[in-house]
Structures are given as structure tokens and as C-alpha cells.
């Protein structure tokens, strides 16, 4: 194969993809059968099958048990805006760290103590098994689950203080910066890493979609004088939302 030449299955997938984008294959329309693809494009069963797999992997079509493969409805992704820290007087849906004024919604949360996993311990600079407060959040907008957040705080920092439970007490829901300030811990830095991966089964059960559907993961850690005082994973369905960063220029 010469440089730039596509395999047959990609050429077939590309043509079908264009028909979906153009509307020739409308949402909820059944994708041409493998036999029809083979006949129309003059390709083998293997090529036809691989082309269908490409479209399914791209999220353009979905299989329905006992019925066939259908074009998925195209949803225009909504924007989630992430900004720098805001004061308590300008709170936003994601506890000051997350913002999109047009996407007001509701939060559910629960907190419980647990031993730090090796990964959480690494991010917090702690030892595996050290006690942490784990708070799990689910955010809904217009009734639709849109974001999961798993947050971990070392009890070596917050234990036996009024802010040990992030969503209870006098500073409930005030965000990491304000809560830590209340116990004389000054947060002076935050690190975020953004990646993507297939959604875990338990994530897709909560957020909707099919197992393996791609999710955006924002791994965030707050620091006070170099010490990690909170780390969290924000999980967002990649096919329904986009992250938009608005950061100050200094």
C-alpha cells in the first residue's frame, strides 16, 4: 500500500460516515446490511464487517439486539467551562472550581472514610492504606446525569476538624480552598491533567451510554505549600460535553 492510500474498509467507512453527516442516513435509520455493503461497494464480507466496526467505534451507529445496526442521533455537545478559583460570593455549580452559568443543576453526594488506594496515595503523597475521606458526587442538569466526581482528602489534614465532611457542617459545599483556609491551611496551587479513556461499567451505568464509551477525565489536585490536600477525578461523557478553559492572562 502506498503512502496516503486507505485500506478498503476505511474507504467504505468514510463514505458511510459522510452519508450520516450529510443526513442521507438519518438518525434511527438502519445501516445497510453487511450483504448490501458488500454488493454496493464490491468488497468482501470481512471489509464490510470492519467498516461497520469503525462506525460503531466512532459512536455513529449502535447495535440493537435482534434488530440490527442503526444510526445514532447526533447530539450537539454542550460546553462545560472551567475557570480559575472564584470567591465564595461568586460560587458556581462545581463548588467554585466548575462553572457554566447556563448549566445550573443539582448535586448528589455521599462521604465515607476509606483506606487510600496505591494510586490515591501516590497523588496525595501518602502511604497506601492511610485513611482518607472519599466524597462521591453526581451532578445532573435538566435531570440528566452529566458529571461524576470522586474526591479524596487525607484525614491527616482534615480529621477531627469542622471540615472533615465536605458537604456537612458550617462550610458545607464551600469548595476546597475556603474549607482548608478555615483550618489554617492555605491552598496556593492546583494541578489538572486532562485525558480520555473508555468509561468503566459503573460509570456508564450512572452517566448513561454503552460500556466502553469514551469519557473525559480531569484529574485535579490542590496543594498547600507543596503538600497535596485534596485530589479528585472528574468524569464527563465525551460524546455529550466539551471542556472549555477560561484562564486569566498574567
TrEMBL record:
Biological processes per GO annotation: negative regulation of DNA-templated transcription
Source species, domain of life: Bacteria
GO molecular function terms noted in the UniProt entry: DNA binding; DNA-binding transcription factor activity
UniProt entry tagged with the keyword Transcription: yes
InterPro entries associated with the record: Bact_HTH_transcr_reg, Chorismate_lyase_/UTRA_dom_sf, Tscrpt_reg_HTH_GntR, UTRA, WH-like_DNA-bd_sf, WH_DNA-bd_sf
SMART domains registered for this protein in UniProt: HTH_GNTR, UTRA
Residue ranges annotated for the HTH gntR-type domain, each copy included: 6-74
Annotated stretches, region: Disordered: 81-120
PROSITE patterns assigned to the protein according to its UniProt record, in alphabetical order: HTH_GNTR (PS50949)
Keywords attached to this entry: DNA-binding, Transcription, Transcription regulation
Keyword Transcription in record: yes
Compositional bias (Basic and acidic residues): 87-113
Matching PANTHER family: GNTR-FAMILY TRANSCRIPTIONAL REGULATOR, MANNOSYL-D-GLYCERATE TRANSPORT/METABOLISM SYSTEM REPRESSOR MNGR-RELATED
Protein name per Swiss-Prot or TrEMBL: GntR family transcriptional regulator
Species, as recorded: Streptomyces xinghaiensis
